[in-house]
Amino acid sequence: MRNFILIRSLTLFALILSVLAGCASAPPRVFDAPAPSVLKGNKALFHDAFDAQEKGQHRKAIGLWKEFLQNEPNSVQGHNNLGMVFYAEDRLTESISELETAYKLEPGNEIVVRNLSRSLQFQVALLKENREYERAIRHLKRLRDISKPEENQKIQFMIEEVEDRIYEQVQNANTAERYKWYLDHYPTGINAEKARRKLAELQDRQSSLIQSFEDRQELDSSGVLAAEPALTEEFPAISEENVGVPIIEEPVAESPVMEETPGGEPMPEEPVSEIPPGAPAGDMTGQEPGAVELPPVEPTEQTEVEPAPAAKREPVKVIITLGNPDSSLRVRAEPNTGSKVLTGIKHGEIRPLIEENKSWFKIEYAPGQAGWISKKFSRKLEAGTRKTQPQAYAEPIKKRNG
User: Fold this and answer.
1) What is the pLDDT of residue 295?
2) Which of 401, 399, 397, 363 is nearest to 380 (CA)?
3) Among 25, 204, 227, 345, which residue's CB has the most CB atoms within a 10 Å radius?
4) What homologous superfamily does CATH list for 317-393?
């Protein structure tokens, strides 16, 4: 019996000790008393705010803490406690702001550091859930700054995990601008090396698309410089529908038929006169025989002929003529090789001509957008040409002798 009572007493005592140890291990989150330097009247206000906070009257507590901090703006305890009320209300931005103020006032205060770390971690979890990865990284870096050295490695792993998510978004976009942006914000790490390689690939690809024969010479399969085609060389036929102008075929005028006399001299054809039946022959009215006087025709509204409207002139167009059909011709902002490259146009494409000078055509390469291309690698297609080929390649018509 005595052994039973002793065992029961020891068990109860061990339970009490464990409870006390648990209470002792739980660090405090709030301050229950202000600093000794706080004025007596403000101390009473501090206790009123603390009581409201402990009872869960958060709205009342927030008002009292703000009133207290107006009187005591450098109170570490007041800013910490107000920050924890905001934390309980899930107002994390305001909670972090108050705790940051307390940290600046007393960076070595362990209660403030723990509370600020807890608020930052909670905020990071919410930001990751909402895919606001950039803000999450900023909060993680702040958490690393205030944490102990032995915790920095763990926080660094968390930062890299969020950076991986950001890089996945950049990869999905797969544009040079997005890779540049990533390197500006996160210039170090494995993802940064990947971004540099991808950026170099995209820039090389873009450069090859707009590379043309303006700035390089074409090599043939044997490695010898290929001769530039002469202007008299026959240009490949271009379909009429691409030129955009009709083929004009002028009719040839026929000469009047002339009969020959027995001596070989041509005899003009006599005009045929029409004499109405029963009309007397000879000059009865002073007119030549066979002539019939017709009544004058007075002009009426029906007989008036309006002038035909002038034919609408089709715009002149330019075709790109490159030796390599897989290359493209650069379109520049100004008529010189040092100006900005706007885009590239492939071999065989046709664009409207706006103006020209000695060595350059100004074309409309896209609706409402214009630029300059070299005449060396393009030809003008004038409206009204007889053949469906550029005029620059049309041979002049030679006059036959004899």
Assistant:
1) 53
2) 363
3) 345
4) SH3 Domains (2.30.30.40)
